[in-house]
Design goal:
- This protein has 507 residues and is α/β, with parallel strands linked by helices.
- It has two domains: 166 residues, Ribosomal Protein S5, domain 2 (2-Layer Sandwich); 240 residues, 3-Layer(aba) Sandwich (Rossmann fold).
- 37% of the residues lie in helices and 17% in strands.
- It is built from 21 helices and 18 strands.
- A hairpin with a 2-residue loop joins strand 1 and strand 2.
- The longest helix has 18 residues.
- It starts with a strand and ends with a helix.
Length: 507
């Protein structure tokens, strides 16, 4: 007898549907699997055979052949166990095959027939809904993320026998219908009101978030760089439902969705240690998984002690910072992950951290140059805002004055985002920092005297075309914060100041 069960695997952020065919025929007793299989899929043969026996299903002394099609796609992961088991049972007549036509089956099984959770259920179920599949049979522990896709009938099972019961038309209490989760209240424990002094750095953080500009903070140890960075999530406006679903799919592929279920509603703040590998930062592996830049999608990637990262690791960031995605090429194909993040970096100006204060800095000129040159000019050229932090004076440190809270800053940023949303309506542009070079003139129009001013700045700072455009984009954002449709001279001046600091240190 013959049967076929639909399943799927995740490749990048896309789903590839796989047909699990089972054939039971006369011949020498053998359990054979074909279809371009990885080692973990080949091992499914023993898991399935043992699990079926321990679950009370007797396999006949016949030839059992399993084919996973299409043959040209390499099959990997443990999610094929349950569809293989169901396909075998269907071929043996234990499961009505007509009930499998509109169903998709996913799950790993243990030797006792128990069904274990797998990664990537959310993007698979989303793709299945788009393909007209009506129901999904998945591990019970994955049901909360599957429920996030409306209109799909979801059946979470903890044992093979429950899947068989369902396909035979029997109901059981663990059946659940897909529905949207409830929104949880937003929690932002860290507030800008807690930071005394550093007005210029706070202003730079506000401007950076308002246009999702990449930002670098330079200053001595203990000047508040990390404190400022960790409070940036508190001034980020909330994500849209579309953005929440995008991010949740990435976390589903990585197996990082919270067990209690629901979409990831807070913008991510990822802060990898400087010992992170290139694969850990950008994604990697034989079948690549998303790295830190993808986990920071629609949020912030914070790199503290920037020069301490390996230079080869940092250089990998250049392309995804421009393209907002990461392409990983492997033997088994190309894998694409979204990486639309805001880079926030912090660093000391030298090894000891106190340059240019020669009363405290003991580094040689050569040592300072070597330390700063760990950051390449092409990478610096992709940073929109560079701001200096200073040692906080004692009177500011102990000041009891009232600082502006994050909520007020967030309100201004939200208004600036709304202006950008209106401005870019009907385009693929989301923020000022994402304006293509060809549209600079359209969205960042300058008066004649401002063009002459920028001509002088271009020559004096020895800017690249990218650097020049970033000044205009930053000025556009500063104007939006002031609710000004026109870019004024003071907006340009502030934007130029954010680009001039890198010249102070790197020349």
């Amino acid at each position: 007898m013959y049967s076929i069960v639909k399943t799927a695997i995740v490749r990048g952020m896309d789903s590839v549907f796989v047909g699990v065919e089972a054939d039971v025929s006369e011949g020498l007793p053998v359990f054979e699997m074909v279809g371009f299989l990885s080692s973990e899929v080949k091992e499914a043969k023993e898991r399935v055979r043992t699990a079926l026996r321990n679950s009370g299903y007797r396999l006949p002394v016949k030839r059992i052949t399993i084919n996973l099609s299409p043959a040209g796609v390499r099959k990997s992961g443990s999610g094929f166990d349950l569809p293989i088991a169901i396909a075998v049972l269907a071929a043996l007549g234990e499961v009505p095959q007509e009930n499998l036509r509109d169903s998709l089956v996913l799950g790993e099984i243990g030797l006792q027939g128990n069904v274990s959770p797998i990664r990537g259920v959310l993007p698979i179920v989303a793709s299945a809904a788009g393909e007209g599949i009506k129901r999904c049979i998945i591990p019970l522990e994955n049901i909360e993320e599957a429920k996030l896709i409306p209109g799909m009938e979801i059946w979470g099972i903890s044992h093979i026998s429950q899947g068989v019961d369902y396909l035979k038309g029997r109901k059981y209490k663990e059946t659940r219908q897909g529905k949207k989760d409830r929104e949880k209240p937003r929690v932002c424990p860290l507030d800008f009101a807690e930071i005394n002094g550093q007005k210029s750095a706070k202003r730079a953080c506000e401007a950076a978030v308002a246009g999702m500009h990449n930002m670098l903070m330079i200053g001595p140890p203990g000047s508040g760089k990390t404190m400022l960075a960790k409070r940036i999530p508190g001034i980020l406006p909330p994500m849209t439902e579309k953005e929440q679903l995008e991010l949740s799919k990435i976390y589903s592929v990585c197996g990082l969705l919270p067990k209690e279920g629901g979409l990831i509603r807070e913008r991510p703040f990822r802060s990898p240690h400087h010992t992170v590998s290139p694969a850990g930062l950008t994604g990697g592996g034989g079948i690549p998984k998303p790295g830190e830049i993808s986990l920071a999608h629609r949020g912030v990637l914070f790199l503290d002690e920037l020069p301490e990262f390996k230079k080869t690791t940092l250089e990998i960031l250049r392309q995804p910072m421009e393209e907002r995605q990461i392409q990983l090429v492997r033997q088994w194909g190309n894998f694409c992950y979204p990486a639309d993040f805001m880079l926030v970096a912090a660093m000391n100006p030298c090894k000891c951290g106190y340059y240019p204060d020669r009363n405290r800095c003991s580094c040689t000129e050569e040592s300072i140059r070597r330390y700063l040159n760990r950051i390449s000019m092409p990478l610096l050229d992709r940073i929109d805002i560079c701001v200096e932090t200073f040692q906080i004076p004692y009177e500011d440190l102990v000041s009891c004055g009232e600082n502006e809270p994050s909520e007020k800053i967030r309100d201004r940023i939200r208004a600036a985002w709304e202006r950008q949303k209106t401005r870019f309506q009907g385009t693929d542009i989301c923020y000022n920092s994402r304006i293509p070079a060809g549209d600079i003139e359209k969205y960042c129009n300058l008066r004649e005297e401002q063009k002459k001013y920028m001509e002088k700045i271009y020559a004096s700072l020895n800017l690249s075309a990218r650097g020049y455009h970033k000044i205009l984009k930053t000025a556009r954002t500063i104007a939006d914060l002031e609710n000004s449709e026109e870019i004024l001279q003071r907006h340009l001046n502030e934007a130029v100041c954010y680009r001039g600091l890198d010249k102070k240190y790197w020349g």
